[in-house]
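Predict both folds.
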Amino acid sequence: MILEGMTLSSGLSFTPPPMVVPPIDLLVVAGGAAGAANGGNYTVGGGGAGGLIWATGLTFYNGTYTVTVGAGGAGVNGAGGRQGNSGGSSSVTGTSVSRVTTSGDGGRYGSGGIQGSADGVPGYAGYYANSGGGGGAGGAATSKDGGPARLISELNGITGYNNTGYFAGGGAGYNGTWGTTTGGGGDIWVDSSSSAAPNTGSGGAPARWNSTTTSPGKGGSGITVMRYADSYAAATATTGSPTITVTGGYRYYIFNSSGSITF
C-alpha cells in the first residue's frame, strides 16, 4: 500500500509476498506392505502399514502442490516365509511444504513388517518373537495380531476403512492360528482374499497355510486428504480426479490416486 504523498522511484518495482491460503488439515498415508508367502506350516507375518501423517492448521501458499499416492505392495507366491513386497511412498510437495510418508516392510518368516516412516520418523514395529503381526499407525503389533490402525475421528463418514476414519492398520499374522487386524488390514482369507482394504494404507496378511500357489494379501493403497473451512473458496484447479466433498463446515479434497491441487 502506498500512502498519500509517497511515490515509487523510477525503475523500482514492488513484488507482494505470496498470499496465504486457509489453514489446511492434511492426511498423508503411504501404501501398505504385503504379507509373507506361506509354503508350509510356517509362522509368518503380516505386512506393515504405510506411514501416516495427520497434521492440522498447516500453512500453504498460493501455487500448485503435487500429490503422490503410493500403491499397496503386491503379494508374491513362493517358498514359505518369502518376504512380502513394500508399497509405495505418498507425499504432498509444493511451495514451502514437503510432507513424505514411506511404505511399511513386508511380512516375513517369524515376524511382522514395521510401519513406514512419516517425514523420516519411524513408525511402530511388527512382532518378532516367532509370531507375526505387522506394524500399525495406532501402535505396535502384539503376537500374531496386526498393529492397530489410527482412528482419526474428524474423518468419520468421509473416507477410510468402511468410512470410519481408520487408517494404516498392520496385517494379521499366522502362528498355527490366525491373528486379527483393525482398520482394513488383511486377515484370514475373508472372501478368498487376505488383502488390505484399498486407500487405507493397511498391511496385507500372509498366504493360506501350506500354499505355494496362492498369493499373500497385498497391501492397501495409500490416500491423501486435504480439508479447510468451507467459508473459503474452492481450489482453482485439480488433477487426478480427487473426490471433492463439502460437509460439516469443511471442504474436502480426497486423493485416492496421484494428482495435484492449485490454490
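Second protein follows, with its predicted C-alpha cells after the sequence.
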Amino acid sequence: MKWGGTANNGNPARLIFIQSAEAKARLSPALAPGNVAKMETAPLTVLIAYDTQFYEHFPTLFPVRPEAADAFRENPEKASLAALRNSSLQGAYLMTAARAIGLDIGPMSGFNNALVDELFLEGTSLKFNFLCNLGYADTDGLFERLPRFSFEEACSII
C-alpha cells in the first residue's frame, strides 16, 4: 500500500484501525443497520479517511515541486477533491495488499459520513471516506463470486 501511486505523491489517506469492542460500539451508530453485524464480527475495520491539508507535507513527499502545494492551499475545494480521489486509491491499495497476504476484505458503504467525522475525526483536518473490514470470512455465509463486466462492457478504446 505504501508504494501505490498518488497524484503529486500526496498520500492523503489516513487509516484508523477499529479493533476494540469500545471502538466498534462507538462506530456502530454511524452504520446502516445491515452493516453493524459485519463490522462487529470482523477482526478489524479500517476507517479510511483523508487529510484535507495533505499538501502541507509536500516539502517531504514532493520535494521536486513543493510549491505545488500553493494551488491546493489557495483552493480548498480542489484540495478536498484531490484528497478524496487519492485516498480512495490508497484504500484500494490497502485492499489489494490485504488480499495479497491472504486476508478477506469487505469494503462498505452504508454509513453516515458526518457522524463518523464527528465521532472519530472532529477537531482534525481529516474527513471520512469509507470503511473496509479485514479478516477471514466465514465461508458458511459466503456466496459464489458475483459476476463482473467483460472488457467490452466496461471499456472503450477511442
